[in-house]
Amino acid sequence: MYNLLKGKRGIIFGALDENSIAWKIAERAHEEGATFVLTNAPVALRMGAINELAKKTNSEVIPADATSMEDIENLVTKSMEILGGKLDFVLHSIGMSVNVRKGIHYTEQNYKFTEKGWDISAVSFHKVMNVLYHNDAMNEWGSIVALTYMAAQRVFPDYNDMADNKAYLESIARSFGYFFGTEKKVRVNTISQSPTPTTAGSGVKGFDGFFNYAEKMSPLGNATALECADYTISLFSDLTKKVTLQNLFHDGGFSNMGVSQSIIENFSDNE
After folding, report:
1. pTM of this prediction?
2. Structural domains in the chain?
């Protein structure tokens, strides 16, 4: 460990179980010397094992619905009280599509489900930053990171309306990041991670297929949840003080590939 986050305080959204990227980030942040509050929706807290993570990282858990301004206000206020000051980092690792869960095809969509998923997966990021911004809750050179996926730029048919949500999320990061940067010297970035076998990710239809495809397409192979955690820690640290408004691909090179020799050989074998 390098004490990259020694003395830094933060909030981590979205740790559900040990397969969650947010869980790995919390473990790594603790190892690097940070103190933080863990949060998730009340229903998710009942499903997950977050208290185990809290004990392991000496953290407190504050339930919060990330679509509720009242809940976020309470979360931010209490976090600063518990941690003893302003925040240095915030992780937004939240995503949910009711249409995906219900097996509703992208061309059909229940639009009430669409709006709910959009609010949870994307607008919640604006709401969180809104509260942080207006409460002057972030220290200068602080870092806010949200997790995204490449379906925001390219077509992955079974990713459904989550692709739209991620595109909106990335736009919020740029737009709000401008104001956070110019006025408060706070960085805002998104990390576009490889397909990762988390509880949420594995629920997408055909996940195993495109996980294996991405592995064969990427020069370095898929990035793991732990590797994503390491990358996130670098963005929370002072080593990346001038990195902001970026969508950063952490995917083993997949995002710049057209085709790989491995994929060509796979199709050649089937001729």
Report:
1. 0.96
2. 9-206+223-257 (3.40.50.720)
